[in-house]
Each structure stands twice: as C-alpha cells, then as structure tokens.
Amino acid sequence: DPKIIQKPKYLVAVTGSEKILICEQYLGHNAMYWYRQSAKKPLEFMFSYSYQKLMDNQTASSRFQPQSSKKNHLDLQITALKPDDSATYFCASSQDRGGPDTQYFGPGTRLLVL
Amino acid sequence: AQSVTQPDARVTVSEGASLQLRCKYSYSGTPYLFWYVQYPRQGLQLLLKYYSGDPVVQGVNGFEAEFIKSNSSFHLRKASVHWSDSAVYFCAVRPVNTGNYKYVFGAGTRLKVIA
User: Between the N and C ends of chain A, which has fewer C-beta atoms within 10 Å?
Assistant: First the structure.
C-alpha cells in the first residue's frame, strides 16, 4: 500500500486559475515537505512543516500556500497559475525535521499550466 | 549557502560494468549526505545516507558511497550494474546543527545501462 498519497496524479490548469494539490502520509511522521521538479531546474525545496507548523519557506511567491488540516496532511494551494508553474510537485515526509532522518517521497503530481 | 554539483548529466554503462556517479558539495562544515534514485514516473527513493562514522556507507541494491571530506565529495559506486539500475540519481546535502533544515539536491545524473 502506498505510504504517501498525492492527488491528483496529473493536473491540467489554465493560466490564472487556482488548484490544490493533495498530500497524505501514513508513515506516522511529524515533518512534511513540498518540492518542485521542472525540466529547467533540479529538485527544488519549497516548504517544510513540523507538527503542522510552517518551519521553512523557500518559495518567493505568496501564490504558493501550504495547508495542513491534519498532522498527516499537507496540501499545496497554488493561485493565479502561470505556465512557469508547470512542474512535478513532490510531497515528502520524515520522522522529524531535525537529524539525518530519511525523507520519503510521494509519487508526485504533474501539473501543466496552459 | 550549500550547493551540490553532479557534473555528469548523463552516464551510459554496459550491464555488468562498474559504476561511479560523482557528487561534490559546497558547505563549510560536514553536512548530512544522501543519494536518492528516481525511476520513471515515481518519487525519489533513498539509496543511502551518511551522517557520521565510517566514511564508506552501504546502501540498497549493492550501492555504496564514500565521503571524502578533504575533497568535499560523496561519489556513488556500484561494482556491477544491472539494466534495472537505469534511473536518475540525485545527491543531496543538509546542514548539521545549524537550524537550517533545508535539503539541497544536485541536478541529477541520468544513468542508462545497456546490454
């Protein structure tokens, strides 16, 4: 059974619209993360959460807003979508934020903005 | 700020041959070091990690890596590759005890194993 679920798998959106990417982890982890991977850039760290609290934000744009309704959920809301937002977005989790804890990655949501 | 360089974007090796994928990092201290693998249409999976002790760490599927502090390197090795090793490999670093928990990934090396 998948331990980190990301929904949807694929997403097509129009410029200017808003989408929410869903992430749920069933590993009992306390820390969750979002990454972005595009053809132009390597895997890029976006956010980290620990016990549902935002700890790190490396995203310059306020159009990207993480939302944690439960400890094992970390959704990503993206508003005013642009074609440059097209990428695969990966959710990850680890036992805790500190230490050399292994990060486990979900399968990703592939977003295409037209 | 830390950074990771994987100088080889693509590597092609024959099945059964040995493999080395290079990784160099830039960081003033000793970071935590990781190698991840990404198969097509999948998320990243951890191969191995280093955080202290023996500089040669063993990972899954016969992979190992050696931390050489003097060279700021953490190259990945495998004695004999299999066609199923074809994937993209990422090296990553994370600072230790700085309050900065951000992982930094290299650009990745795409490995193709041919018959």
Answer: N
Backbone φ and ψ of B84, nearest 5°: -75, -5
Report chain A's mean pLDDT, rounded to a whole number. Answer: 91
Chain A (15-54) residues lying within 8 Å, Cβ to Cβ, of chain B: 33, 42-45, 48
| Interface residues of chain B, partner chain A, Cβ below 8 Å | 32, 34, 36, 41-46, 49, 51, 90, 94, 101-108
The helix (H) or strand (E) run that includes residue B18 is none
| Closest Cα in chain A, distance from residue B106 (Å) | 7
Contacts of residues B59-66 at CB distance under 8 Å and 24 or more positions apart, as own/partner, are B59/B35, B61/B85, B63/B35, B65/B23, B65/B33, B65/B35
DSSP H helix total and E strand total for chain A: 0, 11
Backbone angles phi, psi at B82, to 5 degrees: -120, 155
Separation CA A105–CA A112 (nearest Å): 20
Tokens linked to B108: 């990745």
Note the pLDDT of residue B47: 95
Inter-chain CB proximity A42 and B90 less than 8 Å: yes
Q: What is the pLDDT of residue B100?
A: 67
DSSP characters for B38-79?
A: E-TTS-EEEEEEE-SS-SEEE-GGGEEEEEEGGGTEEEEEES
Q: What is the Cα–Cα distance from B17 to A82, expressed in whole angstroms?
A: 44
The pLDDT of B92-110, averaged and rounded, is 83
